[in-house]
Amino acid sequence: MTYRSFCSPTKLLDLLIERFEIPLPEEATDLDTKKDPLMMKAVKVFKSYYLSPIQLRVVNVLRHWVDFHYYDFQRDQELLTRLHTFITSVKGKKMQKWVAALNRALDKKRDEIPSATKPVFTKKPLPVEWWLTQKPEEFNLLSLHPKDIARQLTLIMAENFHAIHPSELVDASWMKEKKKEMASPNLLKHTRFETMVSHWLAKEIVYTENFEERVTLVSRLIDIMAEMRSLNNFAGLFAVNAAFQSSSVFRLTHTLKKIEGRKSQLLEEVKLIASPDRAYKNYKEKLRTINPPCVPFLGKNLTYCVY
To answer: Which residues form the Ras-GEF domain (predicted)?
Structure first.
């Protein structure tokens, strides 16, 4: 997984193939070799004790690569084609069993459906309420229930989070302009969605011209935060909190003063959880006490990966 810090997947595959294709010693390629029993014995020993073990280790590495990091081949069709070309070129009876196992692993991964996309129903799903799509402009943060909004955002964020591969965190590749889109696509999708949610909510607050309606909207966002906290959606919780901490919303002191009682207390609690003080100490303590599953906030982890 960490090879990306010093070479590309294509380069790694080329090096493995180069390691596999070890040539025989020059002395063994002479035409007179077959006439020399001693040289024939030396070639046999070379193949048995040096060549075969190395080739077997290369095939095992490729098998491990396919089994645990197949996403490299999913992203790069040329890499997959290169692997197939190499497999078909392998000769020798001893290697056929291992090559066949590698082929089976490839076929299994190719036909495999990611578990996150498998629909599972314990009963017949409810009919789709198509009327909801007739006039989407009539539905907004105030017309939809906070629980529904929190659930839908949590489903999207959970799916984005589960799609992130460990390799996307190697070598801080998401920060490198030339390679980030290729090396960390799912991580970028996840973080960009969080940022988009934060900007969207801040815009909704600021664009509300009526004071009373703005107070109601802020109150609704706090209700959404409460639902996200109950769902253990920390990514969403931090996104909503970021909207409140943005300069455009933070300056709305008269609006925020109207938030009192339980909702004001909840807003302060979330601020404490999201506080970066002492390396997100409050957030880490909260993370230890919850019952999984959860959608974590990755900002802290990305900072650790860099520093």
So the answer is: 145-307
